[in-house]
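Many introductory courses stop at the sequence. We go one step further.
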Amino acid sequence: MLNYLALSYIYSHQDRDAVSSLKRCLDIDPHNIIALVNLGLLHLDRKDFKEAIACLQKATDLDGSDLSARIGLGNALAEDKQVAEAIRQFRLVVEKEQENIVGHYNLGVTLAEKGDFKEAIASYQTAARLASQQGLSNSSVIHTNLAASFVAENKKEEARKYCNLALETNPNDAIALNIVANLYM
């Protein structure tokens, strides 16, 4: 019941009340994975990365198959500049669920941040393929990141191709427009 109360606080942007409710849940049941994940994601949203990591790590320790906890942990680690461990978490996600678009996309983002654009491109391409197969119509952010990675690899034709795909689904994608403008300079 307290989990649902906490969620209602989160949805109504009452973060302090949500944190309080989730902590009460954890006082009653310290192994409540839903409360740990929600508290971790709330801390992540508030940019309290150490607390987010602590909650989400505990959730993954309790249930390694909870992919929302693992993705949240990877995001918190990436934000905390623990890139190698974030990559490891995202790899665990896509190993466990090969069709996880978010896992592949976040792995690509983190690899690109590390400067490993070849692997980032492979992850983004998998995410784009999965998004297409699953009928997701707005994958412009994936295409834009693919284009940026191809620019980093000095592969301008591929970058143009993915910018065009991004702009097909989102004609106002400022990043894709900027990449296109720079490619034609």
